Amino acid sequence: MVRSAQALDQAQGSLSSRHWNHVQVKCKYCNQPYTSRGVASHERSCLKTQEKKKERKEFAKLAMRAVEAQEKARHHKKKQRAKEHASAVSMQPLDQSVTDIVSDSEGTRVVDEGSAGPVDISHYDYYEGDHDDVGIARDVADPRQRSGSDTSMASIPGPVPYNSARPAAHPDIDSFKTEYHPNSGRPTSVETFSAFGHGHAQPKFDDREPWHPFASRADFEFASLTHKAALNKEQTDELLRLIQNIVDGHARLTFRSHNDVSKAWDTAATQLTPFEQHTISVDHKQDKLEFERLFKHNGTRYERFIHEPWTADRWWHIQSKLPNDGVPFAIILYADKTHLSSSGIVKGYPVIARCGNLPVNIRNTTGMGGGRVVGWLPIVPEDAEQSGKLSYTNIKRVVWHKAFLKLLELVIIFSKTGFAHHSDFDNIMRWLFPLILLLSADYEEQCVMALIRRTGSNCPCPICLVPTAKLSDHAATYPIRTVEDAQDCLKLYQEDRVAGEEALKEKSLRPVENSFWQVRHSNPHEIISQDPLHAFHGGLFGKHLWTEVKKLLENLGRSALKQVDNQFTAFPRWRNLNHFNSVTNISYSDGNKLQDISKQLLYAAQNVLTQEEDKAGYALLKCIASYLHIDMYISLDVHTESTIAAGEAEVLVFQKHMADYIIAARHTELGTKSWNFPKMHSPKHIFQDIREKGAARNFSTRPNEGCHRPLK
């Protein structure tokens, strides 16, 4: 039974309490029936809903007026560009460009000033699910004016009177422009901030047996565990025998966790002779797969930005040299010697490959789509009698490149012809051309890859022909090395050893044929990249700037060393930042720790190496501050034209501070140190590498250094 609120009092006296709970009463806001017990709670909720709905309607009306104002401002701007060829944006008060809203029996309409008549907007819903709200009339075909975009609401600070004068925001601010390579056949597109990067959803990869080719999931998990634990053959066999005995019932395992094993160890340890602790006291003094260019509107113009390799210049240039239907299959290679045993006696030379077509968050991992060991290079044993001789050094280079040539055999063939590849993932047939996009290595390996002579030669840079005496001069630019020049010198050497050796020595080249010459679009001097880990964190800072700081602190005495250590200890702990209790008396070789030391050093030493106490030390801290600015720009995951230019400008600032420090250091016990070494020259090329190959994390050795541990 349904009763009105007016009959409530009459019914209340005649009904029992139990029966009253089932009487239905209509809500005074939505007119829907509810039980008498719950109607009060519903009416409070319904009132809030009605108030919110009213606020949404008012906001929708304001939003509609603002959007129409933007549309009018954009239209006015286009007309002005056509007449005056200028980039000025028309600034009109909001109330002068607002369209009129009228309502009739047919629905809500917008009458635009100067238009032929009203435009029906009743079919545009501002708030999904509420068709009573006022819609926003716009050209929905324009992706820059979608209802969910940031641009469409950019000029709405809140519910303010619409007739107040406000300048219209630039219609393209925060928009992204994607410029595709002409061979792709795709037109340039413009997307809003909210829409950029959210393309069509990729089909889900349905793999019912992800452990394939292992026979079962248990087999895969066992193999993965033995690999992570680095078990050898005997240990793996012993573990398998133990598991099989347990399964067959011939053995009983009571351990359930690591704690159980630890307790058993502790119990067994009591049967051995215990250790005794003694204190010794000593007195001492106190002490995508598309090739594209991306742009983002910054309020004035579209500025290009770079992150993945396919957004950088090298990919674009390679694509221009391929057939129209060809697609680069970009290979990133890393090679470095490592110790395979804890004693350091056994060494290995793994080669790790990564696919440059995959996004960096997949490519730089060790899981599916990550790096893989594709080969092992031979290591020529050292010979005390032959060590240091030019002929023996050249033999090592010959062995390296002949071995690498075996790894590149198929790459060489397909880099010229390409090969068809059908992807089951997206059902697309592609014509792939494999090539070496970039080489990730330390300076020692770079010299082997580029076949140049190392530090102390005439031109020790693997990229350009800078003389040794000018390695610290970042203002000057020298010719880039070319394959043709190296081949000409090698040909001369084969015809005339004396004249050829002179030509090779002048340009610091080796008389060996480079294996990368045979791979199309893989010039070794172009694909070699500056590695931030070795060139900057472990090199320029770790081996040089940080060493200079410690020497200057030693000159000031133990109190200065102690104060810096104490201030490192007091430095607040931070996520992903190593904390140090003492740094001045410990030698670090880990580039990651040295990077964290560089970030904390200025705070720990600024009141020790002061201009009054040590002019050279103060000048060195200014160098380190500039170095940190360079490192900050290098570390960015997304670069714009502005950030790259700012990084290059900071390199020149760093050079100036270094010149001041060199002059100041001459008047100290340190004397004059030569700063003309290859890693001092790295800042000259690092930002060009970013232009050509994308952000520095694309060619950093950090992900590859992490692959060494499972190999040991």
UniProtKB/TrEMBL annotation:
InterPro entries: Plavaka (IPR041078). It holds the Pfam family Plavaka. Residues 73-82 have a biased composition (Basic residues). Residues 72-92, 142-164 are annotated as: Disordered. This is Transposase. It comes from Suillus fuscotomentosus.
